[in-house]
Amino acid sequence: MWAIFKREIKAYFLSSIGYIFLSVFYLFSGYFFYATSIMAGRADLKYVFSNLLVILIFLLPMLTMKLMSEDKKLKTDQLLLTSPVNLFSVVFGKFLAALTTLFFGVLIMFVFAGVLCFLATSFDWIIFLCNVLGLLLLGSALISIGIFISSLTENQVISVISSCAVILLLFFIDGISATINMNFISKALSSLSIIRPYNEFTYGLFSLPNIVLFFSFTIVFLFLTARVLEKKRWAS
Fold first, then answer.
1. Cβ(160)–Cβ(21) under 8 Å?
2. What is d(CA 219, CA 66) in angstroms, rounded to the nearest whole number?
């Protein structure tokens, strides 16, 4: 797992993907910080975190687009499939590399928090840390979805577009469920919402069910990705 993790981390920063991701993340988070905290005179980062949600919908698929599809395209996946390794550990190593890259982006939030702590008379670190936790949990769920979709195709463009489409569907699922008259279907769809739980984190609401929801999304899609690889192993 750690060998896969190190390989993928190096791949991010030996290519332009890691730098582009962090540059765009820092650019938008800096703008949101300036507009919603500094200019608005707010001593919190709630709106920075909530606005970043829209950016991550389109930015995270860039991190996951090649994690599986490139191996498939270059046929390097055959080495993994024919070697006696645990496929879930392979998937988890790739997942950790993407999540670590996201964490590098999230670190800028601690700089913003330090600035507000210096400028404002009070700063609620508990709410801030709750926001950070929510962003990382949401990111882990979206990354796992992107990795699963990447395992289904060798085309990175298709991987990005499909990941964005699925994430956008989850983004609008609350609105979709509200239009369905059948109560049990509406509740079932609503339970898949990742936006409402994330918004609760931005208000500083630490909820164990929300944490379980994000963990469930992550584990399920990583498990499905491992099963896709397992199927290819038996077919090869």
1. no
2. 20
